[in-house]
Structures are given as C-alpha cells and as structure tokens.
Fold this protein.
Amino acid sequence: MASKIHETAIIGLDVVLGEGVKVGAFSVIEGKTEIGPDTEIGSHCHLGIEAALSKDETLEIGAGSLIRSHSIFYAGSRFGPNLVTGHRVTVRENTIAGDNLQIGTLCDIQGHCTVGSFVRLHSNVHIGQGSEIGDFVWIFPYVVLTNDPHPPSNELVGCKIGDYAAIATMAVVLPGVEIESGALIGASTIVRNDVPRDTICVGNPGKNIGPTEKIRLTGGSEPAYPWRRHFHRGYPDHIVSKWKSEFGE
C-alpha cells in the first residue's frame, strides 16, 4: 500500500518512508529519518530535528507506530515496532528504545538514555538524560527521573529502573539511584537510595517498608505483586502464556 502524505506536510530528501505510512497536515520530517511501514504520523509533528549531540545520525521509527499530533523527535534515536505516543511528546537525541513503547501526552524524554520493550509512560513523565529503563516498566503521571547530583553542575548520573518496576504518580527519583526489578515506588515518594528487588519504597525520604508480596488486591486475598501474575491487558498472548507458566497457572 502506498504512503499517504497530506499536501501540507514537508518530507525531506533523505527521508525514507515505508509502505503504508501516513503523514498528517503540517507535519515536517527531515534529516536522515526512516519511518517503518504502516506507521501513522499525526498533524503538526516535527521529526528528525538535528542537534549538535545527534552527530548527523538517523532517526528510526519502527513499523506499525502511531505518533500523535504536535510530537517532536530529534535525530539519532531508534525505536522498535509499535511505538505509540500521546500528543505533544518531546524526545531528544540518542534515545534507544525497544518494541511496544507507549509514551503519554506531554512526556519529555531528554535523550541519551535506553528504554526497554513494553514500557508504559503515562502523561507528563520526565526522563532525564542517562536514564536506563528495563522491560515492562510502568511509570505513572508526573514522575521525574533526575540526573544532576549538584544542580546546576556538569555532572550527569542517570537513574536505573529494573524490569517490571512500577513508579507511582509524582514520585521523584534522585540521580544515580537504582530501582531493581519488580520494585514498587509509592506516590509522591522521593527516592534517595537504591531500592532492592520486589520491595516497597514510600515517603519523603523514601523508606523500604517490606516486600511487595505483602500487598493484597482491593477486596480480596490475592497478592497484588508481582503484578504480571494477574494484569495482562494489552500484552500479546505469547508473553501472557509465559507469565502464567511462571506462576503455575
């Protein structure tokens, strides 16, 4: 299927569009940008913006992606298939992400970071430079991952977020902190120290209050964590089957 480009869109000479790509009104795609097949770019987007730190590198958007209106992507980043964004997303250069990443409205990814597969960023999330985010991570609205231990300074020490971790709304993770796999960060928590695997961190300053397995689902006795034991919405069958096998279901 041929690409469908709105008559007001501007497509640069070095841009490569896969089959079935749709580009909305007044969008600009420039630089060395490659858009995978069956991707839809909404109106008023700007992709492939060059910056000093992108070093003339290619922006790659994987197949089957959906980038909603007014979103901005700089050159030098790579995204696997099925990227989905909300509106007015900003992604700076050298962001390397896996498959099925979801970026909510008004998120700001400051670049020079890695993001795994099946990561869910809700609206208004700020990801500082140097962040490392694993697979199947949930980050809820207004969370901030910081990176400057002595602001303002020239130091940059990113956060590390392990697989399956969940960070609740308005939490702030301080520079260099590692949140290990399966950990739960409570709402409005200030995370100053590393958080061990499958544990709960809450408060200001954040404190470890025990294993996540002690939390029960509302109105029942079933453990709420690991969340993949019972929450499967939006994940492909082969992944859900693996989780069910892991927990003996």
Summary: The mean pLDDT is 95.
